[in-house]
Write a structure and sequence with these properties.
Elements: E1 2-7, H1 14-25, E2 29-31, H2 32-42, H3 45-55, H4 62-72, E3 82-85, H5 91-100, E4 102-110, H6 113-121, E5 123-126, E6 132-134, E7 152-153, H7 160-174, H8 177-183, E8 187-191, H9 196-207
Parallel strand pairs: 1-3, 1-4, 2-3, 4-8
Antiparallel strand pairs: 5-6, 5-7
Bound molecules: BIS(adenosine)-5'-pentaphosphate.
BIS(adenosine)-5'-pentaphosphate binds next to α1, α2, α3, α6 and β6.
Amino acid sequence: MSSIVLFGPPGAGKGTQAERITDSTGLPQISTGDMLRAAVKAGTETGLLAKTFMEAGQLVPDEVIIALIKDRITHPDAVDGVMFDGFPRTIPQAEALASITKVTHVIAIEVPDERIVGRICGRYSCAGCGSVYHDTFNPVGTDGCNCGNWEEKRRADDNEGTVMSRLGAYHEQTSPLAAWYETAGIFHRVNGDRAIDEITEDILAALN
Ligand code: AP5
């Protein structure tokens, strides 16, 4: 099994691009953020623990995340490879990942900090299918999402205060991973401050 990693700050467009890359490559998306939000909603032990960190815009402890991933990659859809979205986020997480799968590409979606707050505070998604939209940059159609189960959903951590903490955690704990993967020769930088379609084209080119 081999895998690819979508890397970047909060609001860079990892989830938006993951949906498109899944459509093109068939690789299942594994988003630790989505898994944690599902655990919070279900009220599991993991969810209760993670909630406090997520609401504060801090990273959830490595051992919790690594346990989630070790379980998730045993699912049948992961046999031929996966696409990680928002994982790994620390050196210990990257080390754990290296011990369970070969990472072939790390795609870094680069967006300046000053764009991040606007992107996150305008985000909403469809509760029915998970598609991600934005009030200004990527609004849903007048009849809602075309999945047939349109229901608008906004995330509890999508507010200005939490965004600054999440950006701080990214710069302190996650961005050092860039050098780690650059040394391995698998790190590809993509300018994420452009139209969504152009970014998708660049990512698909980097994967070929
Ligand atoms: P997580 O859910 O992973 O959030 P994140 O990394 O902060 O990333 P986001 O989901 O906010 O952004 P995104 O890059 O997916 O952007 P999107 O495509 O939605 O994590 C949440 C929390 O869980 C963390 O804070 C932490 O507590 C915990 N956690 C998760 N994983 C963890 C881990 N591995 N270790 C420890 N803790 C972990 O786009 C954003 C908006 O911009 C959307 O509205 C979209 O429509 C719009 N947009 C997208 N692309 C463009 C574009 N090109 N131009 C204009 N607008 C665009």
